[in-house]
Amino acid sequence: MAARNAVAATEQDIWVILMASLTRRETLSLLGVAVAGSAASVVLQRTAPLGRDVHDNPAAKSILKDTDWPSFGPADADLTVVTFTDYRCPACLYAAPKLDEAVAKDGKVRLVYRDWPIFGAQSEEAARAAIAAHLHGRYVAMHKALMASRVPFTSASIMQIAAGAGIDTQRLSADLQSRSEVIARRLARNRLDAARLRLPGTPGYLIGHLLVVGALQADEFATAFLSARKL
């Protein structure tokens, strides 16, 4: 019971922190996507296989083959999982450690990260910093640090988060300025690919040719991995 209460408190903290910094329009958008993600998770628990087979979607095929994005996983991975997430999305924050747990337990999954900031300026600033970190090979550390953070994202707080993750903040700041057009193009590509997949919001996961929308538990991700391998 104590563990369950701790999880509930963590989820509540995520909501309180995020909601405090949102405008009314952003709040309505956030609630809509979070509810959709929660509902999707409930529905997916009752279906087999999880998600939707997108073998016939040319976008899914090209996205899975695209190697121009930050990734993490073993050289002998037999399954690629492309994640579309936002650092201020409560469902994304909740699902991220569950996904990491499932990936670590599986041992043959390669994660590909696609930043899709849909919750306003703070989301955009965090995503830009993550992509800037990728430009010098530190994406995963920055991504995990941003996902673990519960503070509003400002230029100052993002640099503090980066420093805490062991990232060279001077280089990060320089890349944000000098390579801003590159970063903007990558974000635009992420938005385009999310649209090509017809994702309704974050989080979205292209698990092989299985498209899953919404936050999942670790065991649900494991089931999705199994289902994707059977397609």
Q: Would you list the SSEs in sequence order as H and E?
A: HHEHEEHEHHHHHEEH
Helicity, as a percent range:
55-70%
Task: Note the gap between the termini.
Answer: 38 Å
Q: Indicate the proportion of strand residues.
A: 5-15%
CATH class bucket: Alpha Beta
Task: Count the beta strands.
Answer: 6
Write out the CATH superfamily name. Glutaredoxin
The radius of gyration computed from the alpha-carbon positions, rounded to a whole number of angstroms, is 17 Å
Looking at the structure, what is the overall shape?
A: globular
Averaged pLDDT, please? Answer: 85
Order of strands side by side in the largest beta sheet? Answer: 1-6-5-3-4-2
Sheet with the most strands, sense and barrel status: 6 strands, mixed
- The residue ranges in which pLDDT falls below 50 over 5 or more consecutive positions are 1-48
Number of domains: 1
Kindly identify the CATH topology. Answer: Glutaredoxin
How many H/I helical runs?
10
Q: What CATH architecture do you see?
A: 3-Layer(aba) Sandwich
**Secondary-structure content class:** alpha+beta
Domain Thioredoxin: 33-231
Pfam families: DSBA (PF01323)
Organism: Sphingomonas kaistensis
InterPro entries: DSBA-like_thioredoxin_dom, Thioredoxin-like_sf, Thioredoxin_domain
Give an overview of the whole structure.
The chain has 231 residues and is α+β, with helices and mostly antiparallel strands. The protein has one domain (2-230): Glutaredoxin (3-Layer(aba) Sandwich), CATH 3.40.30. Helix content is 61%, strand content 11%. The chain is built from ten helices and six strands. It has helices at residues 2-20, 24-45, 58-65, 90-106, 121-134, 139-148, 155-164, 169-178, 180-196, 218-230, and strands at residues 52-53, 71-72, 79-85, 109-115, 204-207, 210-213. The protein has a six-stranded mixed beta sheet, with helices on both faces. α5 runs antiparallel to α6 (139-148) and α5 (121-134) crosses α9 (180-196). The radius of gyration is 17 Å and the shape is globular. Mean pLDDT is 85; it is low at 1-48.
